[in-house]
Specification:
Distance between the termini: 48 Å
Oligomer: single chain
Structural class: mainly alpha
Helix content: over 70%
Order of helices and strands: HHHHH
């Protein structure tokens, strides 16, 4: 699945037919279905919580694609940030994923959310576009 995710992010970004985020949402759905059919080492209750998280994060990603770019940026940033909080929850509980993965992913997710908000900041300042600089 990691390879499929990397292909989705880097390979599909090179073309303009299918958004990589759409493929990643599909991969998440496949993993949830797989876990539902085959079971998970942590049990059905943990799978249900993971499914709820997947619905939330995938919903934010798809909503971000469906609205205008400015609102979409905030929705996607919220998804990244909340996923980082989710990962820190895994780190604190020491369940579901390895601690090193939860640490790495949590930090990256929060930084990506901050970057998305930072990129949006000049446009939101005073409710109008920031004039271009230079000659």
């Amino acid at each position: 699945m990691l390879r499929a995710g990397l292909v989705a992010v880097f390979g599909l970004a090179a073309q303009d037919t299918v958004a990589p985020s759409t493929v990643l949402v599909g991969l998440a759905a496949v993993l949830l279905l797989w876990g539902g059919v085959r079971g998970t080492p942590q049990g059905r209750a943990v799978l249900a919580v993971q499914a709820g998280g997947a619905v939330l994060f995938c919903g934010l990603a798809l909503a971000g694609l469906a609205v205008d770019a400015d609102l979409g940026r905030y929705l996607v940033a919220a998804g990244w940030f909340l996923h980082g909080v989710w990962d820190f929850g895994h780190l604190w509980r020491d369940k579901v994923v390895s601690r090193t993965f939860a640490e790495w992913c949590g930090v990256i997710d929060v930084l990506v959310a901050a970057q998305l908000l930072f990129l949006a900041w000049p446009r939101a300042k005073n409710g109008r576009e920031t004039p271009p600089r230079g000659p």
